[in-house]
Amino acid sequence: MRRLTPYLFVLPAVLFLGALLVYPVVLNVLMSFQDVSAGNLLGGAEWIGFENYRAAFADEVFVDAAWHSVTYAAVSVVVQLVAGTGLALFYAQSFPGARALRSLYMIAYAIPVVVSAELFRWLLDGRSGFVNWVLGTRDVFWLADTSLALPAVIGIQVWLGVPFVLVSLTAGLVAIPREFGEAALIDGASAWQRFRWVTWPLLRPVVAATAVLSTIFTLKSFDLVWIATQGGPAGASEILPTLAYRLVFTSFLFGKGAAIMNVIFAVLFVLSLLYLRTDRRTS
Amino acid sequence: MKRVIGVVLVLVYLFPVYWMVSASFKTPAELASVRLVPSSLSLDTWTARIFDDPRVLRYVLNSVIVASGTMVLTLVLGIPAAYALARLPLRGKPVLMLMMLSSLMFPAIMLATPLFVVFSRLGLTDSYLGLILADTTLALPYSIVLLRPAFAAVPRDYSEAALIDGCSPFGVFARIIVPLVMPGIATVAVLAFLWGWGDLVFALTLATEDSMRPVTTGLWGFFGATTSDWAGAMAFSTVAMLPPLVVFLLTQRLVVSGVAAGGTKG
Lengths: 283, 266
What we know:
- The complex is a heterodimer.
- Chain A is mainly α.
- In chain A, 73% of the residues lie in helices and 0% in strands.
- Chain A has a single domain, classed as MetI-like (MetI-like fold, Orthogonal Bundle), CATH 1.10.3720.10.
- Chain A starts with a helix and ends with a helix.
- The longest helix of chain B has 34 residues.
- Chain B starts with a helix and ends in a 6-residue tail after the last helix.
- The chains are: A mainly alpha, B mainly alpha.
- At the A-B interface, α1, α3, α4, α5 and α6 of A face α1, α4, α5, α6 and α7 of B.
- Chain B: It is a multi-pass membrane protein.
């Protein structure tokens, strides 16, 4: 009995995740090899091998969405890393209120993404939007313009992503012993030299881990694009998660949607292995 | 000087949030002409769109139920599991931890289809239980990953002393260990609540009936792709933002430490 007690502690969580996480994922994989639609959802769908995957890869819509996903993740992660690193370094200086000010950025993290997306929908509106007013542009409908929708969504994603970079790099900066910088200062190193040769080498692993995590979050994010543009106009900001959602829940092509989700998952899985490696090196 | 720059940067960054809240108090005329500070405060939007519409209260209550339920279920399942993974002799620990870590990377959207299929069969769509179960699937692994180091940090002498004094293994866990990791538990509680409150994917797919909608899909249902009632949309957005904002402001430290440990969202 004594030896079994430890298992009783994990059993509820393991059963729960087995039923509601592992089983659904397996089901998703199975569905991707079947011709599942609204009619045969409850059983009896035909097995069609890799047909869903073949159809997805051959579909121009999928290829476009894949490119949008890559652009969306790559550009927003690079920009939010640069901005977040700058802010982290700035607020890591000791001045009165630095800590309190820094944690205010997290307000953007606490707000539901749906709310932020709705808010930016208005800021980027063509008629009464604040962005047009600031830029002095007239009647530019940022989110309804085929060439502007994706860049606009990337801009919003940067706003959403900065707090995470700021917080996790701050944790990395705090871990660097003060003496290192002070020693360099005594040796007459300039601010840039101290950053380049003292801070950066110690911060780099944290930046790498943060970059991988941010990429994962951005690649899997659905809420922002769905609320801001629903992938439109005319698919201009369609990313893989919104495409998969649309296939399943508006076209009822469960099998094809499941195939696309599995593609996303395969990419995320590779990235998370990368994260676990970078993270192990940090700690 | 640094302080001034620091304040200005925060103000610029958070300006959209101010703009949202102030819009909900503006008259239609003021909304059309961009004014940084409203000349007068009007409650018209709030009365018409929020207080006089019973559906808003319904959505808020639904969100409160789902977010609190997610929080409670995550803690009930997560605390003992994290403790066992940190402190008890178990076979297969690496496998379990790898499973927890890899589920951090899971897109909610990927679970949406299979959960919809399974919950349709079980009759769990359009129910609080269905939403709570769905939200917990992703909050739980995260909470275990976050709590395990907290349990591991409790000195072993404490539990050993209690065992020698005749405390049962469960008694050691409940009376000695859990109180010591309260800050970690509070962090997880807050993050699970924020997660449940902000969920869009499961709300879209598992709660299609209007009376079951939480604020996220409620907002989208009212002010969807074609809206031009921005004052109404911003008032509703303010309502949807307020509870998580209050929770955040009361527990800032906990949230920051949780996110620094690899916080995922959305």
